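Worked problem 6 (solution included).
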Amino acid sequence: MYKVLLLIVVLFSCGSSTEESIHQALQVSGDPIPFIKISTRKKIIDEPKTAAIMQIFMKDTLLFSSRIGIEYRGAVSQMFYEKKSYGIELWDETNKGISGSLLNLPREEDWILHGPYADKSLIRNVIAYQVSNKIGRYAPKTQFVEVEINGDFKGLYVLMEKIKRGKERVNVSKLSAKTSASDSISGGYILKIDKTVGSGFSNQDDYNKSNAITSRYDQSGKISKNSKIHFLYDYPKSENISELQKDYINNYVHLFEKALASSDFSDPKLGFRNYIDEDSFIDYFLLTELFQNFDGYRISTYLQKERGDKLKMGPIWDFDLSLGSKGFCHNMNKENQNFWIFEYNKYCGDDLWVVPFWWNRLLQDKLFVEKLNTRWNILRQNEFSEVELIQNINNQVNYLKNTKAVERNFDRWRILNKRIEPNETKGSNDQEVEMIKNWLKQRLIWMDKELPKL
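Solution. The predicted structure is:
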């Protein structure tokens, strides 16, 4: 059956009827899974976006068609993985962004096609985002799809929402460069602890006053002029944020860090609780640690501040290196070993990106730890229960198996017996999924035991 699909892919590239070829491909695909076809005249690059046509099919039915702009996205994945991920913007006839609903997801103009590659389970991001949404913390909504670009079948992808300001995404107030009233510039902002966009293995020189806030503290909580910790302006973008708005959010972050680093950090009037939404920090901590996301806290980490509100953590993002995966910190890659990700600096403190001192400091507050354990115990009854988590995994796996999407993906990308940095697993997709489930069961037991000790 899969040879038939490969033949169809060849027919695509030989100029056969596009619509007929897609229908044939879907007919051999088993149960329905959305099929996205993208056609471009020019090569896709990192930036700027390349003009293209995108069509979405479900078996014989054309569900959606639009002009789009498409570009590569990701840092490490773009540089080293054959299977690329893409950023997509829906365009009108003048290449201007327009909103649209894709596969019943809320209307927006910016979308992501994430191509799981090193993650041979294909489901890590989807699982983490679904759990986050279930506990009441927005994370990108997702839909599995298959993708073909210019006649080349690319395998299984995850269509997902891009993290951005919006009523159905990160719901903070809109800020224009003209917004200047003192009560209005208190929100909304989205900040990101991350690599600078598209630079891959960047260095500290990539951060400057125009694109980021630099912490005045090092990873141990000491005053430093050479801090590795930066908060990139994600919304408003660095080219759109006004100097008045920069001054406000810079000052707010610095006041929070000063309060947290002070000897009075737990004081109701002077301490950190005057600046942060404590519950959002607790949920972010529990999601990051439950799934043991190696990128947590130090890269792919978002913060948000709504008008008149305190600083919140989230949404969570980029959980490829989680759920029993390996990370790039080799001192934390010991076999079958559980680690606290917030202690990353203890094992790999010389990394270009380090965990802010916040988390060690917060855990020195008795009330914070009590709230952390209370929230964990509540979530363990439902959303974090073994039954609920394993069932969620099984639901995703069964869907992909029923559609035969897993087999087609690994017919296209023959990597099951190869080591893909940083992961060392060489088994089948079934073995990877079974490893995740066994790992997660042990992680739950470990956190039940270790959280009360913090």
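Discussion: The chain has two domains: 1-161+389-454, 189-379.
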